[in-house]
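Entry 14. Ran structure prediction on the chain below.
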Amino acid sequence: MLFSDTYNELRTPCKGTYHEKGSKFNAYAFPVHSQLDIKNKLEDVKKIEKNANHHCFAFVLHPDKSSIKYNDDGEPSSTAGKPILGQINSNDLTNTLIITVRHFGGTKLGIPGLIRSYKNAAADAIINGTIITKEIKELYEILFTYEDMNYVMNIIKDFHLNIIDKEFEINCRILISIPKNQCDNIIKIFKRNYKLDTKYIRTI
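Output, C-alpha cells:
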C-alpha cells in the first residue's frame, strides 16, 4: 500500500569506489524499472568487471518498493548485499540497482571490514549521483465509442492528463496516467458516463 504521492530515484547511472587494505570496491548504481533492466545491467557490469572476485548487488523496484532483493555472490552471508540495500533504503530510493564488485587485495577484511566496504562503496555511488523526486501516477485504460470522444477528451484536457497510448476507431481506447492524489476524483468523473469502461492497469 502506498502512503505517499511521490517517490525518489536516481536520475542517471553513477559510480562510486572504496579501498580497504588493498581491496578495491567499485559500485555501479542504476535507475531501473523492470527485472529485465536489472538482468541487463548485471550482465553489462560483469563484462566490464570480468576480473572481479565478487559481483554483489541489491535492488528496490516500484513506487511502493514492493520488489526487493540482495545477493552476496559468495561473500559471507549479509556482508555485501545487505549493506548495499541499506544505502538504497537510507536514501529512500526505489527503482534503484547497485552492483558492487570486489577486487581482492590479498588481505582478508573480516566481517566488519566487508560490511563497511560494501556500504561505503554504495554510499559513494549515490553521493556521486542525482536523486530526483517523481509523482506517483496510476495508469488507466478508458474504453469508449466514438460518439463519447468529446466527453473523454474534455476531461483529459481539463485535468491536464498525459495520454500514453490511443486508438481512435469505432471503438476507441486511451491509456492515460493520472496523479495518484487526484485519481479517485477523476475516475468518478469518467464514470458519470455509464457507457465508458475504465480499467486500472498499474502504478508508475
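Helices lie at 35-48, 81-90, 110-127, 149-158, 183-191. Will compare against last week's run tomorrow.
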